[in-house]
Amino acid sequence: MRPVPAPAPDFVVVPARHPGRWVVIAVIAVIAAVVLRSVIINPNFQWTVVGHYIFADIILMGLLTTLWLTAIAMLLGVVLGVIVAVMRISDNPIISSAAQFFLWFFRGTPVLVQLIFWYNLAALYPNYAIGIPFLAPHLLHGSVNDLITPYTAAILGLGLNEAAYMAEIVRAGIMSVDGGQAEAARALGMKRITAMRRIILPQAMRFIVPPTGNETIGMLKTTSIVSVIALSDLLYSAQTIYSRTFQTIPLLLVACIWYLGVTSLLSTVQSRIEHRFSRGHIRRSR
Amino acid sequence: MRPVPAPAPDFVVVPARHPGRWVVIAVIAVIAAVVLRSVIINPNFQWTVVGHYIFADIILMGLLTTLWLTAIAMLLGVVLGVIVAVMRISDNPIISSAAQFFLWFFRGTPVLVQLIFWYNLAALYPNYAIGIPFLAPHLLHGSVNDLITPYTAAILGLGLNEAAYMAEIVRAGIMSVDGGQAEAARALGMKRITAMRRIILPQAMRFIVPPTGNETIGMLKTTSIVSVIALSDLLYSAQTIYSRTFQTIPLLLVACIWYLGVTSLLSTVQSRIEHRFSRGHIRRSR
Amino acid sequence: QDSKLNAMLPDDVRKAGVLTIATDAHYPPCESFADDNKTMIGYEPDMWNAIGAKLGVKIHAVSTDFDGLIPGVQSGRYPMAMECISDSAEREKQVTFIDNSYGTSAIYALASNTTISDDTATLCGLKTAAQAGTDFNDVLTAITTRCKKSGKPGLTIYNYPSADAVLLALYSGRVDFVMSDAAAAADIQKHAPKPIKIYTNDLIPKLYTGMVVRPDQKQLAEATLAGLKAIQADGTYDKIMEKWDLKLLELPNPMINQATVQPLPTPVP
Amino acid sequence: MSNPLVEARQVIKRYGNVEVLRGVDFTVQQGEVACLIGPSGSGKSTFLRCINHLEKIDGGTLTVGGDFIGYRQQGNKLHELRENEIAAKREKIGMVFQRFNLFAHKTALENVIEAPIVVKGEKRQEAMEHARSLLARVGLSHRVDAYPAELSGGQQQRVAIARALAMRPELMLFDEPTSALDPELVGEVLDVMRDLARDGMTMIVVTHEMGFAREVGKTIAFMDEGVVVEHGTPERLFTAPRHPRTRAFLSKVLKA
Amino acid sequence: MSNPLVEARQVIKRYGNVEVLRGVDFTVQQGEVACLIGPSGSGKSTFLRCINHLEKIDGGTLTVGGDFIGYRQQGNKLHELRENEIAAKREKIGMVFQRFNLFAHKTALENVIEAPIVVKGEKRQEAMEHARSLLARVGLSHRVDAYPAELSGGQQQRVAIARALAMRPELMLFDEPTSALDPELVGEVLDVMRDLARDGMTMIVVTHEMGFAREVGKTIAFMDEGVVVEHGTPERLFTAPRHPRTRAFLSKVLKA
Ligand SMILES: Nc1ncnc2c1ncn2[C@@H]1O[C@H](COP(=O)(O)OP(=O)(O)OP(=O)(O)O)[C@@H](O)[C@H]1O
Ligand SMILES: Nc1ncnc2c1ncn2[C@@H]1O[C@H](COP(=O)(O)OP(=O)(O)OP(=O)(O)O)[C@@H](O)[C@H]1O
Ligand SMILES: [Mg+2]
Ligand SMILES: [Mg+2]
């Protein structure tokens, strides 16, 4: 190595220019303006109709149904999904095949069919009776139709279906956690299930959250399928109106505006959760 | 340490018994038998009707539509999804916001609306004209209805929608690949895009495949939404028949049987692909 | 209320004092939701309320998507369904009909389209649409058959899942004409974004439409039929049909499963 | 001297068809520090993992404190235990890994209190106090709230030691605890281990730090190809290895 | 001696508000081996990464072969290059990481041929031949088809060296290439590096292997807190360090 040379001659640094970027910005701006203008002035969009219905009671009621159905179905889906995923990777062959069967069945059939099935369980089994053989054969009994209201059917149908999809996501997440973590937990005397709950799952969340965001946003739209069991969500409420007034496009716009709003909200929540679960995981420099 | 003691006294090892397992197996077997029996003998299922329609031409045609729509929509979804995901994590703020807008819009609106929108573009814009201002103002022009057939509308609607969901999945996958891999690629002189294509994405596949399996199986059922644009998939074909004959339950069974079959096939393919992409990733002992 | 009619009802319905009817309230003028989106309006709601009054039961109407309708009846969740359901031999194998009116269809086209007329020949080679799984499709097939017989090209038929999707295809110019319920003509013309003209055709048949119950609900079917006859006898039926501008579709002598008991002629293409 | 805490006789372990441990004999007395050395792949880690039954053995006997970790003894019958029953028995054995394996989503303090709370059911307050004193002992009082990714390797390994000690084990197993560390950081971890040895903790240490083995080890065992080839006091083994394989190995390692 | 391949003058690098490099001066001649030593966090890795512009510098100048890696010079103006233009310039600089960073989904051979094919556009056949000869040179002819996870650390690091050499670089950067290796395996990697040095490759090596630095290094630079505190020949630096910080560091490392 040489003795340190004299200080460097003063170079002037010229930052990298990206002329392409400005062209792209300009083109996008022009296109956006044209599209926006044509959307606003195009009479087919019937903006006055949109304005009339956007806060209509029926739409807001539908939105409410969409929101709570999504919330409950996702809750059930995540909780059951975690359980099924853990069962699926169990060493016990029975537990793991049971989980696999669940996955196969509920991923494999359309949710429409599942809903109709639950709702009309009575067609197959009109009455139920739970009892203790010989002693009290009919401890609890009644009509299946009374037991399964549209709400229970919707929650069962959407929740179980979602659980199957979530199970697959959770499984992938668990597999992505470094094996050393489980090993350390076992060496400390934790039971498998404790290690899963306290050590593996919290770390798997990093991988689980983004696809779960997808599922939640998807569920928001899937709920409209409950119209087959006489429940009316946001989209179906809009459809109800336009089946009478034939104002199809403006009413779909009303639904879209609400969906976009809720989706934006959920995306924000998602990136917060993602941030939270990346705790302790500093990505090495790129 | 002591001198080595005499060989161990001969203990007899009694393997762990899992009496619980056998009870569970028995219970499951009994339940399965009861359910199966009741499914087979229950007249509501109308198995003869199922048998009559299971290989009916219209059902098989519907199945075909389901299959090719799923294939093309997923293909478009994956390809576009990868592009959008890569754009989303780009350093270039314009590219990344464009990707974010795409995600926001296509995840945020129901696919039903997107389909109706594409299909009925003509209601909004009856004609199109692409030209060079002043010189050849109408180089290409025609009726939008001729341009957008049910098929193009279906592919656009399903594919773009799926792309938004896939983008989120791919992004999560890319973030899960160790940062050192990108670094090594850059140090070897690879351009970002080359590193992404050759090094990062193939390794991200491990994380991408399971949720993509979910998406594909979901898409299989989502295709039935194309009925709004006069295409008839498996489920809708069944619906068309039962809306005439009122044999709702047996025809839904027909659809379910096919869906379960295809899902089983896809699950097998998925685990093969998963296996393939875990190449070089030996999990440390659990 | 007529105590003799009330006595005809099955015990469970009579004791409950409520009869649940499932429908899909998205088909004006059969039934649709009023502006409050709770009340169902249409000629069928008027009719079921009148019959309910005669039978001495309250009617509880539930709107559900069609896919849930028949399974709901078969499972006993809904004792009855009413949704301008047209009667056919095939459907009678699944459910029992109490027919209450005629149903028929009409051809709808944009007023700007001047080539179409009541003559079948003007329709040959055009694009058309109808709701999937409906009898409208049989008419379209018949038109195609006649066109082909006279050496002309047949129709290109698109099927959509709902009446509004069919109309949207017409407005967006995707099809030249559509086939839909004749009863809806007034509503369609009132709400259409573009002027609409209506045509008839000699290939359009008349059908019976009615309420449906599970085949083993003979007693409920008989009671309902008796109620229907009662409102015909006292003139309520006439008033309802007149109010909805449907006098032409009145069914003078209603029966159970009329499509097989007293088949209507099908026009020959 | 007549109180063996760990006693292994003819321990055999197979992965599929490969016999990784081919009859290991090994005894450690209460309060003793035993070092295991040997080339890569000789089965050192595998043997260590057998001791707390992270791996099931396929032959021989292996007891800790006279107790079969994976079995319940009844007469001359050994009833295999289920995973959850074994878990409880692992409490008394602490283990420190080469790659630390700290829980990445928990701070240093949370790492240490986790097992006492969820496994032993200690009160949070108590566990915290104990954890703080342990972290102080390994010189990390100022870093209790840092996440593992924010700690240097040496600091992470010291947290790992504190985590194992929090369960108040009778025996500590170390699997190359310093080999993932920068040379500068090795010292701080060895210091902690020296300290533990002085306090009378029974320890089995797989290590490549010959200086440490010589200074702290009461006995050294040299493993190769799944057996303990030779063992003895450090003085004897390092100065007069009897077996040619021991000699070859030592010459290679001591030179580097 | 008048042909500096790498020339750094007053290089400054900040992460946010933290100045990590606070004016580094450093020169390496063509064909020379320079070793960088210093405590953890002193900025050795950061400086190495600045040389091939994996990090952008915030002040000073840094040239390789007279060329500004991140800039195009025009008169006394330095035009910043875009990432893709810089990529091309990195070809002539090979880099070996502490954690190897082999492409996990590719075999040893595929790791080595990847960059020549996709970056330089070499023919597959040619690249394969070259790769095989390089893998033979690092003693891995028998393991060409193994995936990284199937290789020992020492073998992985040797593949990483072959991978860097496959681009026929003028300069090789090593960032603690042996610190993640078991002591037994260190030797095999250092042997390969010795070999390279003998063949006249210009190398900058961040290392804790003082024996290697002393034997192979032409010059040694000691870094602390973002500056080169002292540099000189190994003999001088190791036997008569001038700066007290150098002395403190060396005493700690040489003892371990
Ligand atoms: N889960 C496993 N499946 C198959 N083989 C294994 C497994 N774990 C270890 N082995 C093999 O067992 C042998 C002993 O491995 P072990 O890790 O015990 O060696 P070691 O002495 O600890 O080596 P090192 O110093 O490299 O850590 C090796 O050949 C290894 O490849
Ligand atoms: N991406 C980053 N963001 C913020 N600070 C960083 C980043 N990378 C490194 N640093 C900080 O820069 C300083 C120098 O780090 P560097 O890795 O260059 O040190 P080093 O000498 O290589 O140390 P070691 O011997 O531990 O590898 C450290 O204090 C480190 O915390
Ligand atoms: Mg080991
Ligand atoms: Mg470093």
UniProtKB/TrEMBL annotation, chains A, B:
InterPro entries with a match to the protein in the record: AA_ABC_transptr_permease_3TM, ArtM/GltK/GlnP/TcyL/YhdX-like, MetI-like, MetI-like_sf
Write down the membrane topology: Multi-pass membrane protein
Q: Name a Pfam family for this protein.
A: BPD_transp_1
Q: Which GO terms describe its molecular function?
A: transmembrane transporter activity
Q: Tell me the keywords, alphabetical order.
A: Amino-acid transport, Cell membrane, Membrane, Transmembrane, Transmembrane helix, Transport
GO BP, one annotated term: amino acid transport
Q: Where in the cell is it found?
A: Cell inner membrane; Cell membrane
Q: Does the keyword Cell membrane apply?
A: yes
Domain named ABC transmembrane type-1 is located at 63-270
Membrane-spanning ranges: 20-40, 71-89, 101-119, 249-269
An annotated GO cellular component of this protein is: ATP-binding cassette (ABC) transporter complex
**PROSITE patterns documented for this protein:** ABC_TM1
Q: How does it assemble?
A: The complex is composed of two ATP-binding proteins (GltL), two transmembrane proteins (GltJ and GltK) and a solute-binding protein (GltI).
The family annotation for this protein states: Belongs to the binding-protein-dependent transport system permease family. HisMQ subfamily.
Q: What does this protein do?
A: Part of the ABC transporter complex GltIJKL involved in glutamate and aspartate uptake. Probably responsible for the translocation of the substrate across the membrane.
User: Protein name, please?
Assistant: Glutamate/aspartate import permease protein GltK
Species assigned in the record = Acidisoma silvae
Automatic annotation (TrEMBL), chains D, E:
Matching entries from Gene3D superfamilies are given as: P-loop containing nucleotide triphosphate hydrolases (3.40.50.300)
User: Record keywords: Nucleotide-binding included?
Assistant: yes
Q: Which GO molecular function annotation, any one, does this entry have? A: ATP binding
Q: Which InterPro entries match?
A: AAA+_ATPase, ABC_ATPase_HisP-typ, ABC_transporter-like_ATP-bd, ABC_transporter-like_CS, MetN_ABC_transporter-like, P-loop_NTPase
Q: Does the keyword Repeat apply?
A: no
User: Which PROSITE patterns does its entry note?
Assistant: ABC_TRANSPORTER_1, ABC_TRANSPORTER_2
Under the heading CDD domains, the entry gives: ABC_HisP_GlnQ
Q: Which keywords does this Swiss-Prot/TrEMBL entry list?
A: ATP-binding, Nucleotide-binding, Transport
User: What residues does the ABC transporter domain cover?
Assistant: 6-250
Classify the source by domain of life: Bacteria
Q: Which family does it belong to?
A: Belongs to the ABC transporter superfamily.
- UniProt protein name: Amino acid ABC transporter ATP-binding protein
Q: Which lineage?
A: Bacteria, Pseudomonadati, Pseudomonadota, Alphaproteobacteria, Acetobacterales
